[in-house]
Write a structure and sequence with these properties.
Blueprint lengths: L35 E4 L35 E9 L4 E8 L6 E3 L13 E4 L9 E7 L22 E6 L4 E14 H4 L2 H8 L1 H4 L12 E13 L2 E13 L5
Parallel strand pairs: 3-5, 6-9
Antiparallel strand pairs: 1-4, 2-3, 2-7, 5-6, 7-8, 8-10, 9-10
């Protein structure tokens, strides 16, 4: 499982896990339960996650506006994330921040479905909108069994991933443009955090129109060695929206 990444004043917090091998190193790990996947902006005044002017569809926003993302419960949203080349097809939940300012990644007992769900940070744009949409998922559960993003490390530049908007039955396609593995110090640097969450989110602002008018999708999970109760690296895949001709 995976914990948190912080933005701006925030830091990337730890990723818990079980006893399986990690994405870059096999390690003996004890069953542990830490509390989130990615730490997100700490601003207590971040506005609505969605902007109709940059919307992929003209539907109701996925999450209602809030003024403080901390402590907001996860909410099921009508979207699925799909990566056919690595066999991923999972439901998405909107999440806010933990009380410590980390992007929430709900956890539970080993039988809980949360290990096989994806988490969209509601402080960013909706997937497909101009700007940066961030999705996180657990690498494994607290027994070390594969989680939602166990296969994420199999993504390669050029491959296509998709988000299904069930409000309109529209599939939004993105092409992977880059994948990286960061140690915890590097992933906490401002430039990397801005790439993961977007400049506005790092600054604690509501999402705005990006100068280059690109719709980005960022995928993140744990990587590296599980030691002292957390993983020591993060795997991040960057993607950009594309138009796919009907088959």
């Amino acid at each position: 499982m995976c914990a948190a990444v912080a933005l701006g004043a925030l830091l990337l917090s730890g990723c818990g896990g079980g006893n399986a091998g990690s994405s870059t190193t096999s390690a003996s790990r004890h069953a542990a339960s830490s509390s989130s996947v990615i730490q997100a902006p700490t601003s207590e005044s971040t506005a609505s996650t969605s902007s109709s002017s940059t919307s992929a569809t003209s539907t109701t926003p996925l999450a209602p506006p809030v003024t403080d993302y901390r402590g907001q419960p996860e909410v099921a949203i009508p979207m699925r994330f799909m990566a056919p080349t690595i066999g991923v097809d999972i439901p998405l939940y909107a999440v806010g921040q933990t009380r410590s300012g980390a992007m929430d990644a709900p956890e539970g007992p080993p039988s809980s479905p949360v290990w096989h769900q994806g988490f969209w940070y509601r402080g960013g744009v909706e997937p497909g909108h101009l700007g940066t949409a961030t999705l996180a998922g657990h690498l494994d559960d607290n027994l070390g069994r594969p989680g939602a993003f166990w296969n994420l490390r199999g993504l390669q530049a050029g491959q296509v991933v998709e988000v299904l908007d069930q409000r309109t039955n529209t599939t939004i396609s993105f092409r992977i443009v880059e994948t990286d593995v960061y140690n915890n110090a590097t992933v906490n640097s401002t430039p990397v955090l801005q790439r993961i969450f977007g400049v506005d989110a790092v600054a604690g602002r509501a999402p705005g129109t990006t100068p280059d008018t690109v719709a980005r999708l960022v995928l993140i999970t744990c990587a590296g060695t599980f030691t002292r109760g957390e993983y020591d690296h993060r795997y991040v895949a960057y993607a950009q929206r594309i138009t796919v001709a009907p088959s």
